[in-house]
Amino acid sequence: MNTEPLFNLLNSVTELSGAFKDVLIGHLKEEKIKAHQIIHAAGQTENRLWFVESGFARSYYFDQTGKEHTLTFYTTHDVIFSYKGFWKETTDYYLEVVSESKLISLSYESLCNLIDIYPEAWKLVTVFIRQRYYLDLFKSRLMTWSAEERYAQFRKASPEIFRLASVRLIASYLNMTRENLSRLMGKDL
Q1: Residue 113 · residue 56 · CB < 8 Å
Q2: How many whole angstroms separate alpha carbon 14 and alpha carbon 7?
Q3: How far apart are CA 75 and CA 59, in angstroms?
Q4: Are 52 and 97 in contact (CB under 8 A)?
Q5: For a tag site, which of 11, 129, 146, 178 has the least CB within 10 Å?
Q6: Rounded to an integer, what distance in angstroms lies between the CA atom of residue 131 and that of residue 68?
Q7: Is residue 53 a contact partner of residue 93, using CB atoms and an 8 Å limit?
Q8: What are phi and psi for residue 116, nearest 5 degrees?
Q9: How much is the pTM?
């Protein structure tokens, strides 16, 4: 397990004590996940958060009509953090590893125990919550714009997604048809 990128990310948020790093390493687990594997299903309580060591994942849900909607994409060195998992509530979405991936996981139970002992653990949680909030806010605002604006803003904010995800997945994120997205992408050529 290569924890260096994870600790670089965490250290960019707050200075980590040696004691915290040592204890945290003991709680981390590496997970090698095959492409298109669901690692969390709707109706379950998410019991851990993940750091994407390498790979690509997404969260999605089905609406009342059965239509699939991508909520979030996660790329290498992203943290997959859930409010509901942290609060021990069931979720209504799925978490799928899109391409073969290496994830480093930490149980929310372990995280809560670390918060009680190490101040930097609480600082990290507040940053994860804030990041999740801003991702959700971006997505909410994105949905108020026209299809062309949604495409342009998302392409600008996350160009790597267009190299990693299929047109179908990006279209489901942007709440448009594949044909419309393909037409907009064709204009960029």
Answers
A1: no
A2: 10
A3: 12
A4: no
A5: 146
A6: 24
A7: no
A8: -65, -20
A9: 0.92
Question: Which single residue is written with the structure tokens 């590496």?
Answer: 30
Q: Give the DSSP per-residue string, the chain.
A: ---HHHHHHHHHHSPPPHHHHHHHHHH-EEEEE-TTEEEE-TTSBP-EEEEEEEEEEEEEEE-TTS-EEEEEEEETT-EE--HHHHTT-B-S-EEEEEEEEEEEEEEHHHHHHHHHH-HHHHHHHHHHHHHHHHHHHHHHHHTTS-HHHHHHHHHHH-TTHHHHS-HHHHHHHHTS-HHHHHHHHHHT-
Per-residue tokens: 109: 């139970």
Residue 31, class by beta-carbon neighbours within 10 Å (0-12 exposed, 13-18 middle, 19+ buried)? middle
Phi/psi region, residue 88 (left: phi>0; alpha: psi -120 to 50; beta: rest), is left
User: Is the CB of residue 36 less than 8 Å from the CB of residue 89?
Assistant: no
Q: What is the pLDDT of residues 45-76, one digit of tens each?
A: 999 999 999 999 999 999 999 999 999 999 99
pLDDT tens, per residue, the chain with 189 residues: 999 999 999 999 999 999 999 999 999 999 999 999 999 999 999 999 999 999 999 999 999 999 999 999 999 999 999 988 889 999 999 999 999 999 999 999 999 999 999 999 999 999 999 998 999 999 999 999 999 999 999 999 999 999 999 999 999 999 999 999 999 999 875
